[in-house]
Write a structure and sequence with these properties.
Layout lengths: L4 E4 L5 H12 L3 E6 L14 E5 L5 H15 L4 E4 L14 H28 L8 E4 L12 H6 L1
Helix pairs in contact: 2-3
Length: 154
């Protein structure tokens, strides 16, 4: 089996943690990232796992994570852009600060991580090998859900 080198953003819980465990158990090398490295303790300490702090709303943090990845593994084959969070509640109740942070994370974070990995695919990876970017999102951007049950259960 050919080992692939994966970076997964948002590995502290949920889908990111699931992706990370599956990638590692499949024999591939993993760069697991989260805003707080302590939240990655659910992953074993292993030479095929690199645990990094990464805040996707910080371009220096993104560049540092990709630099550390290339330093350890030499290149990147797959990036799973998973970091993000939901904001629940009424629109007018959200402060500008909270709403902007969500957009910075869920939109600009994805854009900035993708920009950096495309640079790595082009400038670092072996010529012609490229790479794969997987964007994780939700239906929340496409479909609004509201029902009587929602109002009764809140």
């Amino acid at each position: 089996m050919l080992t692939k080198y994966h970076i997964v953003t948002g590995c502290s819980s949920g889908l990111g943690a699931g992706f990370a465990k599956h990638i590692f158990s499949s024999g591939h090398s993993l760069v697991a990232t989260a805003r707080k490295i302590s939240s990655l303790s659910h992953l074993p300490d292993n030479p095929k796992i690199l645990k990094l702090e990464l805040d996707v709303i910080s371009i220096p943090s993104i560049k540092k994570a990709f630099s550390a990845t290339v330093e350890k593994f030499g290149h990147v084959d797959v990036v799973i852009n998973n970091a993000g969070y939901g904001l629940m509640g009424d629109t007018e109740g959200a402060t500008d600060e909270v709403a902007r942070k969500q957009l910075d994370t869920n939109f600009w974070g994805v854009v900035d991580v993708t920009r950096e990995v495309v640079r790595v695919f082009r400038d670092v990876n072996p010529v012609g090998s490229g790479g794969l970017v997987v964007q994780v999102t939700s239906l929340g951007g496409w479909v609004g859900v509201c029902c009587q049950w929602c109002f009764l259960s809140c």
